[in-house]
Design a protein that fits this description.
The protein has 115 residues and is mainly beta. It is 0% helix and 55% strand. The chain has strands spanning 3-7, 10-13, 18-25, 33-39, 46-52, 55-58, 66-71, 76-81, 90-97, 104-105, 109-114. The radius of gyration is 13 Å and the shape is globular.
């Protein structure tokens, strides 16, 4: 059974940092592309970053502030988020794919940034 479980969300102040984690199980983690997405109230889901092998790609909106990384030994993908601002308030999701589209999704973790 495939599971992706996000953690690390919470309420922070503008300028703070958070590190999200996503623990995976039920598939060959090292062979998959892992991604982070977010969805704010009333908005569409937004791609943030993905990591395939050691290669990373970022959305322009988070480039330079967010860093995606993975630990294949722990079957975990991370999202380090720095310089958070209220516009980063959203539910954050991790997802996994071997091809396209993303086949597996976590349940999400709430990040709220106060001004």
């Amino acid at each position: 059974q495939v599971q992706l479980v996000e953690s690390g969300g919470g309420l922070v102040q503008a300028g703070d940092s958070l590190r999200l984690s996503c623990a995976a199980s039920g598939f060959t983690f090292s062979m998959y592309t892992l991604g982070w997405f977010r969805q704010a109230p009333g908005k569409e889901r937004e791609f943030l970053a993905h990591i395939r092998w050691g290669n990373t790609t970022y959305a322009d909106s988070v480039k330079g502030r967010f860093t995606i990384s993975r630990d294949n030994a722990k079957n975990t993908v991370y999202l380090q988020m720095n310089s958070l601002n209220p516009e980063d308030t959203a539910i954050y999701y991790c997802a996994a794919r071997s091809g396209t589209p993303y086949a597996y999704w976590g349940q999400g973790t709430q990040v709220t940034v106060s001004s």
